[in-house]
Amino acid sequence: MAKKKRQGHYCRICGEYKANEKFSGKGHAQHICKACMSKKKKGGEIDHDIPVDDDDFDELFGDMEYDMFNPDIDIMPPVEPEHKKYDKLNKEEKAALKELWADIVIRYWEDERLIPFGEPYSKIKRELLEIFTEQGEIALKDDNNLKVFLHDTMIVTINKILKRKM
Description:
Blueprint: E1 9-10, E2 17-18, H1 25-30, H2 34-41, H3 54-61, E3 82-84, H4 91-112, H5 119-136, E4 138-140, H6 144-165
Parallel strand pairs: 3-4
Antiparallel strand pairs: 1-2
Helix pairs in contact: 4-5, 4-6
């Protein structure tokens, strides 16, 4: 027999299924309706030992994500990064990539006093792609346009460093 599909969300405090509108943004994640949340804030008695305070909730559950559309599933699966070519990035993503690459090149230059070439270049490029995938949730495809962008940005960055030293 199939499980009965319920609409709305389950409130952990009052134990009722309520419409989406009865939950605030934080209430969705904590599974606590607006009425129970306001009782807690007014100092009303709540019998359950369920963390309602944001600090207590974060301390107990950390960075767990909740699926607010299905109260039976608490933890969402990890997000698969979106695969894109450099040309398909928007202006903000390109600016973030440029800034991150400049930081990596500057750090390499300060450590080695060399322009990265060959294996060191490949190593810091892999570092860039890994960091960008983690932070931007975008896996860049290593195509010719990306190589040209990285090379040009690296040269400009090192030239700026050298001009400041003069």
